[in-house]
Every structure is written in C-alpha cells, then in structure tokens.
Fold this sequence. Notes:
Elements: H1 5-11, H2 18-25, E1 32-34, E2 39-41, E3 49-55, E4 58-63, E5 69-75, E6 80-81, E7 94-97, E8 101-107, H3 110-117, H4 119-145, H5 148-166, E9 173-175, H6 180-187, H7 191-203, E10 207-210, E11 213-216, H8 219-226
Antiparallel strand pairs: 1-8, 2-7, 3-6, 3-8, 4-5, 4-7, 9-11, 10-11
Amino acid sequence: MSTSCFAERLAKQTPLTDLERAALARLEENPRKVKRGAMIQRVNETVTELFVLREGRVMSFVILPDGSRQILRVYFPGDFIGSASTIYNRAPESLVALSDAVVCPFDKHALRRLLEESPRVAALLFLLSNAERISMTDRLAALGRTSAKARVASFLLDMFDRLRVTDDRITDSFELKLTQEEIGDSIGLTSVHVNRMIRQMEQEGLISRANGRMTLLDLARLEEIGHYTNRHKDMDLDWLPVG
C-alpha cells in the first residue's frame, strides 16, 4: 500500500483503517518538487488545487495595505494546505516554499470522493481545521494584548508542539528553519525586536541556540511568559464514529 504522510499525521489522532489510508494516499499520487522561495499559490488566483505537504516547509501569507507581510501559518510535513480555500473560488492567501519542499497537489473536487468514502476522515479534517483556527485565534489575541517577549515565547512553543505531533524524536530541541524576519512577520514584530527578545531569553536561560537548532530549556517558564496553551494535545475524539 502506498504510504501517505497525511495519513500518518491523522493517525496520530486516531487509528485509521486500510481503506482510509488508501483514500488519503490517493491525494499524494502526484508529488511536485518546489524550490525555496517558489510561489505555490497567489492570493486571488482561481483555486483549482489543494495540497498535502510531504517534505520541507511552506508558509501562507497576505500583503497588508502598507506593503508589509503578515505570515498566517507555517506548514510542516503531513499538513493539509489550503483548507481556507475549500470554500472560495479565489485564494484568500498566498503560499510560498520556505525551504526546498515536496507538495502533493490534488484537484479540489477530489475532496468530494474522500468525504463520501471516508466520513471519519471528513470529521478529522473538521477537527484539525478547528484546532488550526483556535491556534490562530490565540495568536491574534497575543498580537493585541501581550508583550514582544510573550509573543516570541508563544510562537516558539507553538512551533515546537506542532513538530512534536509528527516527530516523536523531538524532546526539547528542534530545527526552527525560520529567519528572524519571518518570525517577526508572524507575530507583528521587526526582525531587530525578535533578535533582541531571543537574546534576552538566552541570557535568562530559557532557550539556547546551536548549529541551527533551538533548545527550549525551561518549558514551564516559557509557557508562563507566553500565556501559552498547547492546542495540539488533549483533543476530545470520543465523538468520532468507529472505523
């Protein structure tokens, strides 16, 4: 049976049947390599494809009226990209590769067959879409109500917890693979301000950096500073139908 990184992602939440795995694998039958910086989708383009990310990292973003960039979401392998586009004819956001990546595009209408054949998968997509919405709501609240230090702490924790969903090997350190400008564009800060906050947290023994890896040394303190709630665990799946 063909493997599916999307199926592996969903299986972290609940066991999948062979039929469900096969249905998800069909979405990844046409992988496409994209180079770092390549535009995958432009805002307001007609939406014909959705994507599963197999390798690398991708971000969604919009350009604001003053010309600044607001990064909405950073996607990791196993993520479904484009859920916001399922209800619109034109893309509400742009997608660009943050690294060399492999995306698996599939026709938007392929979702109909998936949902008809695998209603539990439809329920899981609904669940993950809502978890993503809550996570973005947390970030929106932070942009208006918390300090720069709190925003950076919360952002690092969110990246850390999302990566741990699909990589059990991660304990306290991870490869961030984001520039300080990209972090700033995600949380409404300049790259200079992000750099200052990261250096301050290093000096306080909260984090450390080495060889491209970020280590979170005091998770409890970082969660307190960032007013952070992990939205990627303790999900209630008891209502899901049995597979």
